[in-house]
Amino acid sequence: EGAELATGGTRRGIVVSTLAEARFFAAGGFDDILYAFPVPRWRLAECSALAQRLEAFQVLVDSPQGLEMLLQNPLPGGKRWLVWLKLDCGNARAGIRPTDPEALALARAIAQGSPELVTLVGIYAHCGNTYGCRDIPAIQAIARDTTAAVLEFVTA
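Structure for DSD1 dehydratase, as requested:
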């Protein structure tokens, strides 16, 4: 009920951190779900099933190996993997650093490599490094730094 309220009744555009959550929301009629964790190989079959079932099941990629895994496991029926490039802008959990020389090459490979198999939807960054903040100005500083890093990367 909360997710339906949060989406204005559209049941679209939600983000989940586990595939159990994705399956739960899919069973509830949500058909536009982002799995906000770089796809591990052992979860690929589950992600593929959701991608085939839903209008838009989106995943994160943060390495050339992750992209290659998707390319080697295309979706059937003309569907494409919908991919967000995951940037690590300071929380050191997952993602490629936007200043890493490989980051731009990876973005280009996702966007231009095999458009019939993989579509670059966007750039994703999570400010998990705000969890330890003690006040609003500290949270705002991290948000500004993350926004600046993502915008600089996208501009490049």
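Helices lie at 2-6, 19-27, 44-53, 64-71, 101-112, 136-155.
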